[in-house]
Amino acid sequence: MTNRETRATTARREGANPSLLSIRDVVKRFGPRPVLRGISLEVTAGEFLTILGESGSGKTTLLRLIAGFETLDSGEISMDGVRLEATPAHKRQVNTVFQSYAIFPHLSVFENVAYGLRAKKTPKAEIPDRVAEALAMVKMSDFAESAPSRLSGGQQQRVALARALVNRPRVLLLDEPLSALDANLRRQMQGELKSLQREVGITFIFVTHDQEEAMALSDRVALLRAGYLEQIAEPREIYGEPATAYAAQFIGQTNLLRAEVRDGIASAGPIVWRTFGPAGTATYSLRPECIRLVPTVAGLTAAPDVSTARFRGKIHSQAFGGAMDMLEIDCGNATKVRARLPNPGPLSGEHEFEFYANDAVRVLEGGDE
Amino acid sequence: MYSRAYKLLVAIPPIAWVTAFLLVPYAILFCYSFWSVSAIQTVVHNWNLHNYWELARNPLYRDVLLRSMRIAAAVTFFALLLGYPLAYYLSFHATKRKDLLYQLVIIPLWASYLVRGYAWKTILGTDGVLNGVLHFTHATALLLSIQNLINQHVGASHQIALVPLPFLLYSPFAVVLVLTHIYTPFVILPIYAALEHIPRNLVEASHDLGSSPWSTFRRVILPLSLPGIIAGATFAFVLTLGDFLAPLLVGGASGIMISNIVVGLFGAAYNWPLGAAIALCMMIIVMALLFATERLEKRLKVS
Asked: What is the pTM of this model?
């Protein structure tokens, strides 16, 4: 699927489902410490939105504000155009899957899942069927009568999911639900979560600090940094066209090149490429996998056309990584770049490398404003 | 891992302690309960069931034992009624004042039992603080009815309608009041500990699933704090049942409890065998109670 196609599908979906949850200028402080410093974003009905950020970026606080566990200091959160501030948590059409699952230890799996239905006075006759349906959805039908203490972490995770989904919420909030699982189980649950979300069509807001998880699962990723929204975009876009140096570094690996731009030419030490950006100093992000090895032994050859940039460098280190090796290349003038090359074999000494000029993306140098 | 000799060595002090200070005295008590007292007030070692027969036959002992259990039940009830809300507030809502309030709960435990008992005497006495205040605020009539209610519940008859209330002191009412004051901290602490152990995200999960605060309390907090309630109630009941100082200080004739009778039998009455029989009966009651509550707590923890 190309970038253009993805955007077309998103546009279609947005056309069918307008904004469901609207977050505007949200500010939250804990004492004197600001945790969210003016976040605005729109959540589309049916989308899988990931809120990504390091610990302390405010991502969990944003989730808790939506759930109603915290009150905001300023700004507004509204669902279908109705402001939520006055609605207490237990009256919001939002359910949460907690990081540590929060399964009620004194109730059976069945009663845990039925909890929300009973709280909302669902007709008694309807409850067994809906619980069974929810448990089947997460493949936990055989455990209905079990005590939660007998379940593994992954099973508790599934019960927590069923317990939230059985209420058919407008929005499902997931607070790092996979972080306590081991790597294999985690990957498996990621796949299941994604297909579950497609199946039920409920809007998922998923909080994580794991950028790979964010990329794999989401329709869109909202990157938070120290209480600010750094960038919100589809995974491919945020990876391919990071808005800031921080976004480029946080999502995947990158080389940040501080370049001097003059007359459409950017030069970062010995590396020179064509650019359409305005003159002055600028930071560019160049992904390691965008750099290729030029198979020549002679001296520096001319680039085949202006859209390709070539440079020479000494192999500083090479780390074998199966399909791709990670190389550190010393280009002189204290400029080092990292390149990810497919099966280059053992390399040493000086080599020639190239990249497409357009792959060097101009990014904003984010300060701690 | 450890050698047999080491394990034996470590086990000796507790075994010796329990044997010397618990098993041997109880064995002696057990023997005494089957002996009797002669006409010239000496203990005769002729084995018989006379003392137990006396307990079953004489309604005095049965009545006092029943009254003691009613007083213990009343103290347990009031201590829970006072203690649970305080423990709940302490655990869930006292953010900055938490440590201070916790200390305030503990501090009375440092004051001597006798000091607290005598303090109540000065409060409850005919010319005491309480009567002064009640008289001044015309609240005497209201309290009379409450006191009447408690005395009825505890099974003591008392003439009332005197102003000021001379019998605030020397009544089952006074015993219940003083013992509630003394044993409420013992109820608060286990309940507080149980409440503190409830993960807060369970409360959030309950709200998240659509439960109102009251329904969350009823369906999550209360069931999960039940082990603490049982432990606290057991403390209050067992400690009250065995108490003899409060009835002695503020109980008067109508507030006498079973331990006072045991004390009397071992003292002035010089009938150790009968006293031993009563003590053993009480011990059996208490042990049965502890056994039952332990079973209950275990069952709650499993499910």
From this structure: 0.80
